[in-house]
Design goal:
Structural class: alpha/beta
CATH architecture of the largest domain: 3-Layer(aba) Sandwich
CATH class of the largest domain: Alpha Beta
Radius of gyration: 19 Å
Largest sheet: 7 strands, mixed
CATH superfamily of the largest domain: Thiamin diphosphate (ThDP)-binding fold, Pyr/PP domains
Order of helices and strands: EHEHEHEHHEHEHEEEEHEEHEHEHHE
Strand content: 15-25%
Length: about 325
Protein backbone atom coordinates (compact mmCIF):
# COMPACT_ATOMS: atom_id res chain seq x y z
CA UNK A 1 0.00 0.00 0.00
CA UNK A 2 1.04 3.57 -0.63
CA UNK A 3 1.17 6.38 1.95
CA UNK A 4 -1.50 9.02 2.55
CA UNK A 5 -2.32 11.48 1.13
CA UNK A 6 -2.83 9.43 -2.00
CA UNK A 7 -2.19 10.84 -5.44
CA UNK A 8 -5.22 10.83 -7.70
CA UNK A 9 -5.82 10.05 -11.35
CA UNK A 10 -8.64 10.94 -13.71
CA UNK A 11 -10.61 8.45 -15.79
CA UNK A 12 -8.83 5.23 -14.77
CA UNK A 13 -11.89 3.21 -15.77
CA UNK A 14 -12.21 4.86 -19.17
CA UNK A 15 -8.58 4.18 -20.01
CA UNK A 16 -8.77 0.60 -18.74
CA UNK A 17 -11.86 -0.11 -20.82
CA UNK A 18 -10.16 1.21 -23.96
CA UNK A 19 -7.12 -0.97 -23.28
CA UNK A 20 -9.31 -4.03 -22.76
CA UNK A 21 -11.38 -3.31 -25.86
CA UNK A 22 -8.27 -3.27 -28.04
CA UNK A 23 -7.84 -6.97 -27.27
CA UNK A 24 -11.53 -7.87 -27.06
CA UNK A 25 -13.37 -7.01 -30.26
CA UNK A 26 -16.64 -8.31 -28.80
CA UNK A 27 -16.86 -5.45 -26.27
CA UNK A 28 -19.72 -3.02 -26.94
CA UNK A 29 -20.06 0.17 -24.90
CA UNK A 30 -23.49 1.62 -24.07
CA UNK A 31 -24.29 4.93 -22.39
CA UNK A 32 -27.45 6.41 -20.91
CA UNK A 33 -26.73 10.04 -21.81
CA UNK A 34 -23.81 10.23 -19.36
CA UNK A 35 -20.86 9.62 -21.66
CA UNK A 36 -18.25 12.05 -20.32
CA UNK A 37 -19.49 11.65 -16.75
CA UNK A 38 -18.80 7.90 -16.83
CA UNK A 39 -15.41 8.24 -18.56
CA UNK A 40 -16.47 6.47 -21.76
CA UNK A 41 -15.91 9.47 -24.00
CA UNK A 42 -12.48 7.86 -24.32
CA UNK A 43 -14.08 4.69 -25.71
CA UNK A 44 -16.29 6.68 -28.07
CA UNK A 45 -13.23 8.42 -29.51
CA UNK A 46 -11.36 5.16 -30.09
CA UNK A 47 -14.18 2.81 -31.14
CA UNK A 48 -17.17 4.84 -32.41
CA UNK A 49 -18.49 1.85 -34.33
CA UNK A 50 -18.80 -0.10 -31.06
CA UNK A 51 -20.46 2.71 -29.10
CA UNK A 52 -24.24 2.93 -28.55
CA UNK A 53 -25.95 6.01 -27.12
CA UNK A 54 -29.18 4.75 -25.58
CA UNK A 55 -30.36 8.11 -24.22
CA UNK A 56 -32.13 8.56 -20.91
CA UNK A 57 -33.71 5.13 -21.18
CA UNK A 58 -31.88 2.85 -18.79
CA UNK A 59 -34.43 0.04 -18.94
CA UNK A 60 -34.20 -0.05 -22.72
CA UNK A 61 -30.40 0.11 -22.54
CA UNK A 62 -30.24 -2.94 -20.30
CA UNK A 63 -32.62 -4.87 -22.54
CA UNK A 64 -30.46 -3.94 -25.54
CA UNK A 65 -27.41 -5.18 -23.67
CA UNK A 66 -29.11 -8.50 -22.99
CA UNK A 67 -29.93 -8.90 -26.68
CA UNK A 68 -26.35 -8.03 -27.67
CA UNK A 69 -25.00 -10.58 -25.20
CA UNK A 70 -27.21 -13.25 -26.80
CA UNK A 71 -25.52 -12.46 -30.12
CA UNK A 72 -22.05 -13.06 -28.71
CA UNK A 73 -21.08 -9.52 -27.75
CA UNK A 74 -19.77 -8.39 -24.35
CA UNK A 75 -21.82 -5.30 -23.48
CA UNK A 76 -20.72 -2.75 -20.87
CA UNK A 77 -23.56 -0.41 -19.82
CA UNK A 78 -22.84 2.88 -18.05
CA UNK A 79 -24.67 5.43 -15.95
CA UNK A 80 -24.76 6.60 -12.34
CA UNK A 81 -25.18 3.76 -9.87
CA UNK A 82 -28.70 4.71 -8.81
CA UNK A 83 -29.87 4.74 -12.44
CA UNK A 84 -27.95 1.57 -13.27
CA UNK A 85 -29.72 -0.49 -10.62
CA UNK A 86 -32.94 0.96 -9.25
CA UNK A 87 -34.53 2.22 -12.46
CA UNK A 88 -33.97 -0.83 -14.74
CA UNK A 89 -34.23 -3.48 -12.03
CA UNK A 90 -36.88 -5.55 -13.80
CA UNK A 91 -34.88 -5.58 -17.03
CA UNK A 92 -31.71 -6.56 -15.14
CA UNK A 93 -33.54 -9.51 -13.64
CA UNK A 94 -35.42 -10.75 -16.69
CA UNK A 95 -33.23 -9.71 -19.63
CA UNK A 96 -29.81 -10.28 -18.07
CA UNK A 97 -29.63 -12.20 -14.80
CA UNK A 98 -32.28 -14.87 -15.35
CA UNK A 99 -30.70 -15.98 -18.67
CA UNK A 100 -27.27 -15.51 -16.99
CA UNK A 101 -25.85 -13.32 -19.75
CA UNK A 102 -22.41 -11.64 -19.65
CA UNK A 103 -23.53 -8.03 -19.30
CA UNK A 104 -21.34 -5.62 -17.32
CA UNK A 105 -23.36 -2.98 -15.45
CA UNK A 106 -21.12 -0.09 -14.40
CA UNK A 107 -22.52 2.36 -11.85
CA UNK A 108 -20.71 5.55 -10.86
CA UNK A 109 -21.11 7.84 -7.82
CA UNK A 110 -21.79 5.29 -5.06
CA UNK A 111 -23.50 6.12 -1.78
CA UNK A 112 -23.19 9.69 -0.56
CA UNK A 113 -20.37 10.57 -2.95
CA UNK A 114 -22.97 12.13 -5.27
CA UNK A 115 -23.81 15.85 -4.94
CA UNK A 116 -27.28 15.21 -6.36
CA UNK A 117 -29.15 14.35 -3.19
CA UNK A 118 -31.39 11.31 -2.61
CA UNK A 119 -32.48 11.02 -6.25
CA UNK A 120 -28.86 10.47 -7.31
CA UNK A 121 -27.38 8.64 -4.31
CA UNK A 122 -26.97 4.90 -4.81
CA UNK A 123 -27.35 3.84 -1.19
CA UNK A 124 -29.07 0.50 -1.83
CA UNK A 125 -27.49 -0.59 -5.12
CA UNK A 126 -25.31 -3.29 -3.55
CA UNK A 127 -28.31 -4.71 -1.68
CA UNK A 128 -30.39 -4.82 -4.87
CA UNK A 129 -27.70 -6.42 -7.02
CA UNK A 130 -26.60 -8.80 -4.27
CA UNK A 131 -30.11 -10.21 -4.03
CA UNK A 132 -30.25 -11.12 -7.73
CA UNK A 133 -29.19 -14.70 -8.60
CA UNK A 134 -26.15 -15.07 -10.90
CA UNK A 135 -24.99 -11.48 -10.22
CA UNK A 136 -21.39 -10.70 -9.25
CA UNK A 137 -21.07 -7.47 -7.20
CA UNK A 138 -17.79 -5.52 -7.06
CA UNK A 139 -16.95 -2.32 -5.15
CA UNK A 140 -13.34 -1.35 -5.84
CA UNK A 141 -11.31 1.02 -3.69
CA UNK A 142 -8.85 2.74 -6.00
CA UNK A 143 -7.57 3.28 -9.53
CA UNK A 144 -5.18 0.33 -9.39
CA UNK A 145 -8.04 -2.03 -8.57
CA UNK A 146 -10.13 -0.52 -11.35
CA UNK A 147 -7.47 -1.37 -13.94
CA UNK A 148 -6.94 -4.83 -12.48
CA UNK A 149 -10.64 -5.64 -12.17
CA UNK A 150 -11.62 -5.11 -15.80
CA UNK A 151 -9.61 -8.00 -17.30
CA UNK A 152 -10.78 -10.17 -14.40
CA UNK A 153 -14.48 -9.58 -15.03
CA UNK A 154 -14.27 -9.93 -18.80
CA UNK A 155 -14.64 -13.70 -18.67
CA UNK A 156 -17.16 -14.04 -15.85
CA UNK A 157 -19.92 -16.08 -17.53
CA UNK A 158 -22.84 -14.18 -15.97
CA UNK A 159 -23.67 -10.55 -15.21
CA UNK A 160 -21.44 -8.25 -13.15
CA UNK A 161 -22.23 -5.03 -11.30
CA UNK A 162 -19.18 -2.78 -10.94
CA UNK A 163 -19.43 0.14 -8.49
CA UNK A 164 -17.02 3.05 -9.12
CA UNK A 165 -16.06 6.40 -7.63
CA UNK A 166 -16.34 9.26 -10.09
CA UNK A 167 -13.87 12.10 -10.59
CA UNK A 168 -10.46 12.10 -8.95
CA UNK A 169 -9.77 8.51 -7.98
CA UNK A 170 -7.09 7.75 -5.36
CA UNK A 171 -4.19 5.40 -5.96
CA UNK A 172 -3.96 3.35 -2.76
CA UNK A 173 -2.19 0.28 -4.13
CA UNK A 174 1.00 0.10 -6.13
CA UNK A 175 1.18 -1.54 -9.54
CA UNK A 176 2.08 -4.91 -8.02
CA UNK A 177 -1.30 -5.21 -6.33
CA UNK A 178 -3.25 -8.29 -7.41
CA UNK A 179 -7.01 -8.23 -7.78
CA UNK A 180 -8.92 -11.44 -7.14
CA UNK A 181 -12.54 -12.33 -7.81
CA UNK A 182 -12.42 -15.03 -5.14
CA UNK A 183 -10.16 -13.81 -2.34
CA UNK A 184 -10.42 -10.79 -0.05
CA UNK A 185 -7.15 -9.12 0.93
CA UNK A 186 -5.82 -8.78 4.47
CA UNK A 187 -3.92 -5.50 4.26
CA UNK A 188 -2.94 -5.03 7.91
CA UNK A 189 -2.42 -7.82 10.43
CA UNK A 190 -3.95 -7.56 13.90
CA UNK A 191 -5.47 -9.79 16.56
CA UNK A 192 -7.83 -7.57 18.59
CA UNK A 193 -10.23 -5.92 16.17
CA UNK A 194 -11.08 -6.51 12.50
CA UNK A 195 -12.20 -3.69 10.21
CA UNK A 196 -13.71 -5.13 7.03
CA UNK A 197 -14.20 -2.48 4.36
CA UNK A 198 -15.12 -2.00 0.71
CA UNK A 199 -14.89 0.73 -1.88
CA UNK A 200 -14.48 4.32 -0.75
CA UNK A 201 -14.40 3.28 2.93
CA UNK A 202 -11.13 1.38 2.60
CA UNK A 203 -8.97 4.50 2.86
CA UNK A 204 -10.79 5.49 6.05
CA UNK A 205 -10.37 1.99 7.47
CA UNK A 206 -6.62 2.12 6.87
CA UNK A 207 -6.38 5.56 8.46
CA UNK A 208 -8.49 4.47 11.45
CA UNK A 209 -6.30 1.40 11.96
CA UNK A 210 -3.24 3.64 12.17
CA UNK A 211 -4.86 5.87 14.80
CA UNK A 212 -5.97 2.86 16.84
CA UNK A 213 -2.58 1.17 16.56
CA UNK A 214 -0.96 4.31 17.94
CA UNK A 215 -3.31 3.99 20.94
CA UNK A 216 -2.37 0.35 21.49
CA UNK A 217 -5.18 -1.42 19.62
CA UNK A 218 -4.13 -4.23 17.28
CA UNK A 219 -6.30 -3.88 14.17
CA UNK A 220 -6.67 -6.23 11.22
CA UNK A 221 -7.89 -4.52 8.02
CA UNK A 222 -9.53 -6.59 5.30
CA UNK A 223 -10.42 -5.21 1.89
CA UNK A 224 -13.46 -6.86 0.29
CA UNK A 225 -13.79 -5.62 -3.30
CA UNK A 226 -16.02 -8.55 -4.28
CA UNK A 227 -19.12 -8.49 -2.11
CA UNK A 228 -20.80 -11.28 -4.06
CA UNK A 229 -19.69 -14.00 -4.18
CA UNK A 230 -18.25 -13.16 -0.77
CA UNK A 231 -14.99 -14.76 0.29
CA UNK A 232 -16.63 -16.37 3.31
CA UNK A 233 -13.52 -18.37 4.21
CA UNK A 234 -11.41 -15.24 4.71
CA UNK A 235 -14.22 -13.63 6.70
CA UNK A 236 -14.54 -16.67 8.97
CA UNK A 237 -10.78 -16.91 9.46
CA UNK A 238 -10.53 -13.18 10.18
CA UNK A 239 -13.37 -13.13 12.69
CA UNK A 240 -12.07 -16.20 14.52
CA UNK A 241 -8.79 -14.39 15.22
CA UNK A 242 -10.18 -11.20 16.78
CA UNK A 243 -12.43 -10.12 19.63
CA UNK A 244 -14.72 -7.76 17.68
CA UNK A 245 -15.60 -6.77 14.12
CA UNK A 246 -16.50 -3.53 12.32
CA UNK A 247 -17.70 -3.33 8.73
CA UNK A 248 -17.43 -0.08 6.77
CA UNK A 249 -19.30 0.71 3.57
CA UNK A 250 -20.52 3.76 1.66
CA UNK A 251 -24.01 2.24 1.50
CA UNK A 252 -26.97 1.44 3.69
CA UNK A 253 -26.16 -0.93 6.55
CA UNK A 254 -29.09 -3.01 5.28
CA UNK A 255 -28.29 -5.55 2.61
CA UNK A 256 -24.73 -4.63 1.74
CA UNK A 257 -21.28 -5.61 3.00
CA UNK A 258 -22.26 -5.43 6.66
CA UNK A 259 -25.22 -7.74 6.09
CA UNK A 260 -23.09 -10.19 4.11
CA UNK A 261 -20.49 -10.33 6.88
CA UNK A 262 -23.16 -10.66 9.58
CA UNK A 263 -24.76 -13.57 7.73
CA UNK A 264 -21.39 -15.30 7.38
CA UNK A 265 -20.57 -14.86 11.06
CA UNK A 266 -23.98 -16.11 12.16
CA UNK A 267 -23.96 -19.15 9.89
CA UNK A 268 -20.49 -20.07 11.13
CA UNK A 269 -21.60 -19.78 14.76
CA UNK A 270 -18.86 -17.28 15.57
CA UNK A 271 -19.84 -15.26 18.62
CA UNK A 272 -18.23 -11.88 18.04
CA UNK A 273 -19.73 -8.42 18.57
CA UNK A 274 -20.28 -6.65 15.26
CA UNK A 275 -20.83 -2.98 14.43
CA UNK A 276 -21.69 -1.71 10.95
CA UNK A 277 -20.51 1.68 9.69
CA UNK A 278 -22.86 2.89 6.96
CA UNK A 279 -26.07 4.81 6.39
CA UNK A 280 -28.47 4.00 9.22
CA UNK A 281 -31.66 3.28 7.27
CA UNK A 282 -32.02 6.85 6.07
CA UNK A 283 -31.90 8.92 2.93
CA UNK A 284 -29.06 11.43 2.89
CA UNK A 285 -29.29 15.04 1.82
CA UNK A 286 -27.48 16.83 -0.96
CA UNK A 287 -24.14 18.63 -0.70
CA UNK A 288 -21.76 20.12 -3.24
CA UNK A 289 -18.94 17.88 -2.03
CA UNK A 290 -18.89 14.49 -0.34
CA UNK A 291 -16.92 15.14 2.90
CA UNK A 292 -19.73 16.98 4.75
CA UNK A 293 -22.07 14.08 4.06
CA UNK A 294 -19.52 11.49 5.17
CA UNK A 295 -19.13 13.42 8.44
CA UNK A 296 -22.84 14.04 8.98
CA UNK A 297 -23.81 10.41 8.45
CA UNK A 298 -20.85 9.09 10.44
CA UNK A 299 -18.93 7.48 7.62
CA UNK A 300 -15.57 9.05 8.41
CA UNK A 301 -12.28 7.84 9.85
CA UNK A 302 -13.07 9.25 13.29
CA UNK A 303 -16.37 7.40 13.30
CA UNK A 304 -14.57 4.09 12.79
CA UNK A 305 -12.16 4.98 15.59
CA UNK A 306 -14.98 5.99 17.95
CA UNK A 307 -16.92 2.83 17.15
CA UNK A 308 -13.89 0.64 17.78
CA UNK A 309 -13.11 2.35 21.09
CA UNK A 310 -16.66 1.85 22.35
CA UNK A 311 -16.91 -1.70 21.01
CA UNK A 312 -13.73 -2.77 22.80
CA UNK A 313 -14.73 -1.01 26.03
CA UNK A 314 -11.58 1.09 26.23
CA UNK A 315 -11.57 3.77 28.95
CA UNK A 316 -11.34 7.46 28.29
CA UNK A 317 -11.88 9.35 25.05
CA UNK A 318 -10.98 7.67 21.75
CA UNK A 319 -7.80 8.80 20.00
CA UNK A 320 -8.16 11.49 17.33
CA UNK A 321 -7.99 10.38 13.73
CA UNK A 322 -4.97 11.74 11.86
CA UNK A 323 -5.65 14.96 10.00
CA UNK A 324 -3.98 14.59 6.62
CA UNK A 325 -4.35 17.61 4.38
CA UNK A 326 -4.66 16.79 0.71
CA UNK A 327 -3.26 19.21 -1.81
CA UNK A 328 -4.53 19.55 -5.35
CA UNK A 329 -4.24 16.21 -7.09
CA UNK A 330 -4.23 14.32 -3.80
CA UNK A 331 -6.85 12.42 -1.80
CA UNK A 332 -7.23 11.86 1.91
CA UNK A 333 -10.10 9.98 3.56
CA UNK A 334 -12.72 11.97 5.42
Amino acid sequence: MLKQPYRTVLKPYGRALVDLARDRAEIICLTADLTRQTEIDLFQEQFPERFIHAGMAEANMVSMAGALARRGFLPFVHTFGVFATRRPLDQIVNSVAYPNLPVRIVGFMPGVSSPGGPSHQAIEDVALMRAIPNMTVIDVADATQVRAALPSIADVPGPVYLRLKRGEVPVIFDEGHEFSLTTAQTLIEGDELAVIASGMMLASAISAAAALAAAGVSVRVVNVPVIKPLDAETIRRTVSRVSAVITAENHSVIGGLGSAVAETIAEAGLGRPLRRIGLRDTFAEGARTAPPLFRKYRLGTQDIVDCAWELLGRPGPPPPAPATVAAEGEYSPV
